[in-house]
Design a protein that fits this description.
Helix content: 25-40%
Order of helices and strands: EHEEEEHEHHEHEEEHEEEEEEEHEEEEE
Largest sheet: 6 strands, mixed
CATH class: Alpha Beta
Number of helices: 7
Number of strands: 22
CATH architecture: 4-Layer Sandwich
Structural class: alpha/beta
Oligomer: single chain
Distance between the termini: 36 Å
Radius of gyration: 21 Å
Shape: globular
């Protein structure tokens, strides 16, 4: 019942944001279901949706052999094989079934390995899009997905190829989340020790940001969905690495890892300059938190995808204001 003739207030838009699931089947299924669970209007999946490795499973007679996480597995039944595949799916790894001859031929052929990786990773992403379209078909919800620095273009093109009504590939585009608010997305990062597919120099990243902000009419009602967090924001704190070793190793002092801000100066400069309503980030898994740069609320929900845990954040926005937010884990 309305009191004193007051008009009913406008409803806030509820966002659920998660990022850095790196191919994890468990994390993605939780993400799809989070819309209904958290009563979100908008689902946003930040960058690094693609896994990092594929595992050859070699069938030799009635036995399957594979090596993962530094261990050799011998699987003697179809049940053991299914359980092993499920474990790999949770970890975000892909698998391919090979004969001993096929394995021997591929072992020394990096080009063939890359082709197989792109194929199986692209297929999983296509399957995810189909699952999301099915699960969201009877709702008003939209799912926005962007790539990250770990995501090769050859794989994330599966988003463009398979999205239909409820899944929206949003990288490089200005999209409207509701009548008031727009979002721009960028998956590139500054340079890392890992030589990932889409890391670039700070100058190049600044140019990418200039390109993507051109479509913004009102930054006060805009969300920056930028995979890389701003430099020295507390959302980018991680151990410093010695890149003279292969692989890079953590630099220690007095028995403790040396921590530093691995984020982007270009992203920080852009946020300070444009002051968007909200900035959503990922990239640094261990740096979960919320920070402010001027009037902008900046959030990195963190990631624990390999444990099957979905880190996320609920954000309510209304008429150019962040009405509230809550970090989630489940």
């Amino acid at each position: 019942m309305r009191l004193f003739g007051k008009k009913p207030g406008k409803k806030a838009t509820r966002i659920f944001f998660a990022t850095d699931i790196h191919g994890s089947e468990t994390s993605f299924r939780k993400f799809v279901n989070a819309g209904k669970f958290y009563e979100a209007d908008v689902l946003i999946l930040g960058g690094d949706v693609v896994g990092k490795q594929f595992i050859p499973i070699v069938k030799d007679g009635g036995t399957y052999r594979a090596r993962a996480q530094g261990q050799t597995f011998e699987l003697n039944t179809e049940t053991e094989l299914a359980d092993f595949k499920k474990k790999l799916g949770t970890l975000g790894a892909y698998w391919v079934m090979l004969s001993p001859e096929e394995y021997a031929a591929m072992k020394g052929d990096q080009t063939a390995q890359d082709q197989v990786f792109n194929q199986v990773a692209g297929q999983r992403l296509a399957d995810w899009v189909q699952l999301a379209e099915e699960r969201l078909s009877d709702s008003h919800r939209k799912m926005y997905i962007t790539g990250g620095n770990d995501d090769p273009w050859e794989v994330i093109k599966a988003l463009e190829d398979n999205a239909r009504d409820h899944v929206v590939p949003c990288e490089g585009h200005t999209v409207r989340l509701d009548d008031d608010h727009a979002m721009i997305s960028l998956g590139y990062s500054n340079e890392t020790p890992w030589n990932t597919p889409r890391e670039i120099t700070e100058d190049e990243l600044a140019e990418k940001i200039l390109e993507v902000v051109r479509g913004v009419e009102d930054f006060r009602k805009c969300i920056f969905n930028f995979h890389c967090p701003p430099k020295d924001s507390t959302l980018d704190t991680c151990p410093m690495l010695d890149t003279s070793t292969d692989p890079p190793t953590v630099i220690m002092e007095a028995g403790q890892p040396v921590l530093f801000g691995a984020g982007s100066t270009s992203v920080r400069t852009a946020i300070n300059k444009y002051q968007p309503l909200l900035a959503l980030h990922g990239h640094i898994h261990e740096s979960r938190g919320v920070a402010r740069l001027g009037q902008t609320v900046c959030i990195n929900p963190g990631s624990e995808y390999a444990e099957g845990i979905l880190r996320g954040v609920i954000v309510n926005i209304l008429e150019g204001k962040v009405e509230g937010y809550q970090l989630t884990s489940g």
